[in-house]
Amino acid sequence: MREAYRYRQKRNMIKSQKSKFNPSDFKSIHSSAIVQVDG
After folding, report:
1. Could you give the residue ranges of the DSSP H alpha helices within 1-39?
2. Which of 9, 27, 34, 39 has the fewest CB atoms within 10 Å, i.e. the most exposed one?
3. Which candidate, 10, 26, 27, 30, places its Cα nearest to that of 18?
4. What's the predicted TM-score (pTM) here?
């Protein structure tokens, strides 16, 4: 159960970090990440 809590904390941290980006920056980063995953 503690692992799940830690995982949630980590996700919350990432969320707060993402919210600091400009929306346009986030969009470009997100799209490039999708392209990389698609290969």
Report:
1. 2-20, 23-38
2. 39
3. 26
4. 0.30
pLDDT per residue over 1-39, tens digit each? 678 888 888 887 767 666 565 666 666 666 665 565 654
Q: What CA–CA distance (Å, rounded) separates 23 from 10? A: 21
CA distance 36 to 21: 20
pLDDT at residue 2, as a whole number: 79
First and final CA of the chain: distance in angstroms?
35
7 touches 15 (CB < 8 A): no
